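Task: fold both queries, return tokens.
Query 1:
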Amino acid sequence: MADFFDKVIDGVNKGVATVSTGSKTILEKTKINTVIKTLTDEKKQLLEILGNKVYTLAVQEKKDIPLSEVEPICEQITQRLSQIAEQQAKIEALDEEMNRITGSSGVSNIVCSCGNINKSGAKFCAACGNKLS
């Protein structure tokens, strides 16, 4: 009888640890996704600035495009891409940690861009309603 209760207690403890870790993971992933969105928006703005500069110089002013005019913008775009990759690596590390703690392979869950973990086969996120890919 003691073995039964020990198994129940172990199961409950694992469940609590999983929920606690899952909540922290989702919160952290949501923060990271916000950073990724900000960096992506900045990259889009920089690309627009670059495109406008190239268009203005090449088409409107009929000038050669000096590297000194576009190189700083290109460097900023490259920096944003690197920062986005770093943030995505953080998300992957969080997923791996969650899978390690829960003992799952990660294949059975679908993670939405909002950070919610959905069951395999789900078409829409249970938290935000976004379509899952």
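Query 1 returned. Query 2:
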Amino acid sequence: MDEILSRCGFRCDLCLAYRPNVEANLAGRQVLSDGWHKYFGFRIPAEQIICDGCMAENAHLIDKSCPVRPCVMERGLANCSQCPDCPCAQLTERLVVYEELATRTPFPIPSEDRTRFIAPYENKRRLDQLRRSS
């Protein structure tokens, strides 16, 4: 699957909630629900986990209250890296930096957990790279 970047810099193609990934592995939804709870402190019931990605038209989204998507769309941008106000308060709420998460987690993070539950959402570094390259 090609790389699919969300408005805030998440990697949809790596996310277990992304519709093609759910359809390929239904059991991944419970795994993801548990992982999000373990590392980010929220739980979404497994049966509710499916997302088309915020780049899709009429998308089914997990986070219906995301403030980033409508902002980026109103500005006519592909993602936050193109915004002169980046990082704004809305994006800052959504930034994921592995090193910061690791310091808040009271146990070592196994590499498999980082791959499944953290890497898809490590958006700060990704957005910074995009800003530098454009």
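Both queries returned. Flag for query 2: The chain has a mean pLDDT of 95.
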